[in-house]
């Protein structure tokens, strides 16, 4: 199985300030900004691109139920997850199961950009939140 870095997710408290930093200090470009109130997501997301690399800035929209709010409360703002693009998510999930690596089943979803994703259980990854994702309805390596 081939893995490629897709993006890094960063938990932030203030999305506007973070976008400004990524634009004015790092020279990034805002690709998209949207709000997701889906259960288990509850966040506003800004996708930033710097020299072809993507960072997702994640701000909680519900301080009670948002996993980003919980993350910030427990660990503070900063890197939330690392996402790896896999050729075919279902195949990657089968491989994980064979290797005894658990996923967080409730996180399996397709986002507004057509990216299918799931998070691996941090208890099986040394504590790092890792996302596996694919883009089944897009050409290879195509991303919004």
Automatic annotation (TrEMBL):
Family annotation (CDD domains): MMCE
Pfam families per the UniProt record, alphabetical: Glyoxalase_4
Species assigned in the record: Thalassobacillus cyri
Annotated protein name in UniProt: Methylmalonyl-CoA/ethylmalonyl-CoA epimerase
GO molecular function, one term: methylmalonyl-CoA epimerase activity
GO biological process terms held by the UniProt record: L-methylmalonyl-CoA metabolic process
Family in the record: Belongs to the methylmalonyl-CoA epimerase family.
The entry's keywords: Metal-binding
Source taxon at top rank: Bacteria
InterPro entries found in the cross-reference section: Glyas_Bleomycin-R_OHBP_Dase, MeMalonyl-CoA_epimerase, MMCE/EMCE_epimerase, VOC_core
